[in-house]
Amino acid sequence: MSRIKTFNLPDLGEGLTEGEILAWLVKVGDTIELNQPIVEVETAKAAVEIPAKWAGQVQAIHHPEGTTVEVGTPIIAIDTDPGAGPLEAPSTTATPSGDLPTPSAASLAAVEVAPAEGMIEPGLIGGAAPGGRTAVLVGYGPRTTAAKRRPRKGAVPAQAVAAPAPTAPTPPPVVTPVAAPAQNGRAATATGGVLAKPPVRKLAKDLGVDLGTLTGSGPLGSITREDVQQAASGASVVVAEPIAATTAPSFGADREQRIPVKGVRKLTAENMSRSAFTAPHVTEFLTVDVTRAMKALDRLRGRREWRDVRVSPLLLVAKAVLLAVQRHPMVNSTWAGDEIVVKEYVNLGIAAATERGLIVPNVKDAGRLSLRELADALTDLVQTAKSGRTSPAAMSGGTLTITNVGVFGVDTGTPILPPGESAILAFGAVREMPWVHKGKVKVRQVTTLGLSFDHRIIDGELGSKFLRDVGDFLTDPEAALLAWT
Amino acid sequence: MAKGDPGGTTRSRRAASRSRKGAAGDPALVQLLTPEGERIDSATGPDGTEYRVDFTDEEYRGLYRDLVLVRKLDAEATALQRQGELGLWASLLGQEAAQVGSGRALRTQDMAFPTYREHGVLYCRGIDPIMPLGLFRGVDQGGWDPNEFKFNMYTIVIGAQTLHATGYAMGITIDGKTGTDDGEAAIAYFGDGATSQGDVNEAFVWASVFNAPLVFFCQNNQYAISEPLERQTRVPLYQRAAGFGFPGVRVDGNDVLATYAVTRTALDNARLGQGPSLIEAYTYRMGAHTTSDDPTRYRIASEVEAWQAKDPIARVKAFLEKQQIADADFFAEVDEQARRESVHLRERVLEMPNPEPVTMFDHVYPNGSPLLDEQRAKFSRYMESFEGSAH
Lengths: 485, 391
What we know:
The complex is a heterodimer. In chain A, the strands form 4 sheets. In chain A, strands 9, 12, 13, 14, 15, 16, 17 and 18 form an 8-stranded mixed β-sheet that branches. Chain A has a 4-stranded antiparallel β-sheet with strand order 1-8-6-3, with no helix packed on it. Chain A is of the alpha+beta class. The radius of gyration of chain A is 29 Å and the shape is globular. Chain A contains 12 helices and 18 strands. Chain B has 2 domains: about 15-350, Thiamin diphosphate (ThDP)-binding fold, Pyr/PP domains (Rossmann fold, 3-Layer(aba) Sandwich); about 355-390. Chain B has helices at about 10-20, 55-80, 95-105, 120-125, 135, 145-150, 160-175, 200-210, 240-245, 255-270, 300-310, 310-320, 330-350, 370-385, and strands spanning about 30, 45, 50, 110-115, 185-190, 215-220, 225, 225-230, 250, 275-280. Chains A and B meet through strand 5, helix 6, strand 12 and helix 10 of A and helix 1 and helix 2 of B.
């Protein structure tokens, strides 16, 4: 038995086909014990730590963090007897440390659809799913290698008859490309009627969408829930956010790129669709002169005890929201079907753009924090999010959210409520603008607030009062503090 | 970025509200060993029954050994799944006391009906822990002779085994094996989620009206996969028994002594012919529902931490130390035994042979069938037509 053992990514949960390497917990050269956690892998079902299958020394790590790896692919090589001296010959699987091979496009795309049974309809179990994955319900995912059927006794190889080239090397196994683009789109019209599942038809009926006018993006050109929702909302509600914004799109021959929907993107999409189509949203805007507040921030920064604290306009907005919630507690509530749950605690969510996509961690019980504690909590939350270490616990239980769109240089937006929350405030860019101040047009620092709220719970009057209070605080924080607290 | 949050807000709110209603201070909870390792002499159940245990030092040490071994073997199986050697594993982490306490209360003649998580009860029945792993490795169908081990096959269908147990227990009565101190009894294991199943409620009805010698042992681990307890019931589960006409008791499921005492009493009542009872072992699943699940998506970390403080093993260790029943050498020896047995288990799992394809015909009918024999022969000839065939 070989000293070097290669560990292939297993199916971590009943029929998964791939996993993303989140973090390596060991590095090349490390001595590891049996069952020592070596890598964190995130699948469609869970993020889990994989324990080492063998004790020994890490010989090679085959995929860097952030790579999505097919089940069955080697991810790490372990020397199970490092004390036995140097290796005689370099292992074929080992790669020099620090020189991680990029998985070739072919190795990622080459998921074989069982050739003889290749007529399975895409999207069905065993067939190709949208995004080039092979759909499986249970088991160990699709085969990633060519079928190795043992030859029949005394049988003449079929290939020898068809192509008599006895001296030629064995041809490589045929790899059938999955989800040929031609299979999508047109098939619907070719067969006559429109392909859509009953719940999708119901949704289209409810939303007043004519299925005949749509081009399906599902298997065999069938119309999906997303197609209907997109048509209903006037094409592009969701601003396209490439998964990895830094990598240029790689277009195929059809000049289209297909990005698999998964991970944070998938979750965001589900949450946004769910929220947008269950909670009736109302958005109101308020433009306020925040010159005094900006000056107050400067004075705060100048104080000795605040010297090392990161003080941003977001801090004042957060404070304004927390104070306004005290005056209007109904804003901090959840629609729970037959009851409205009003919360005394405010878990203040802050929408953060990260490399993995949009996440909304929250500051727990933010209403109880002093301004200084709030500042520290916000700084910590943002830094944790940027470094990708935000825990699921930090992202759950939010009660009210601020989305700071101003950092992208825009004035405002109509934010969509995180599921379970009743209000979300968009904080726009602070700009110098001509503004009527004490009867004269002056250059003042002005921003626009956008508040979306769930109209099942919050009426226009309450929403307006809340937004007004947030604006009042930002217009004159000192006076608001004196008047309210 | 005019968008909001992923992350199940409503679910977390529910989880938080449930943990506030938790077990602390519940007068109905039978407890004989506190989370701090303090012994309580006796505890009274809701119907006035007195529960107490009187173990020798050796027996106390034995229970500790059981708990540690069961946890270690379970952890090994979880690791094997992560390494691709098992297709799935349902971990019992956190529920060791409920399983060891009830498992050790069983007598040789008693019959147990497990779910797919009763690895601890299986261990206490003296069964080799390798036995169920073939099922999770996918090399057999999880079949064994229930009568040989007095331990039914793992039942994946939620709650189905409560009906099997009820029928079995009714059979005990018909055989005339109840009514004495050494009579027979059966125990049916299930979880809080199963109480919402029709099967379990039917089993309650039948066991009650036929006075079956059966103990319904519910490990309330607070979650039916991702659904919290308040989605199963508006009353404490043990109180359901009253509506069916038999006694119910809630025991601290993380207290191996109380679980033992309550189960032994319920089994003795059953074997004496006094009918069924329901035990709700109030506990917590520290891990995932199975290895395919991610509990961080539906429950909050603070809840898990709160239960961590009620760990079933830590309290026994604290008790043994305080009472000077065991010393450091003993704990080290138990850890070493656990390590040895888990390595042994791992080695044997890796060596489990893949089944021969033809064995799929083996257990269809107890006495075979001509049609099946013909199919088997045909299939064998087909397999033999390949080169390098082992047939």
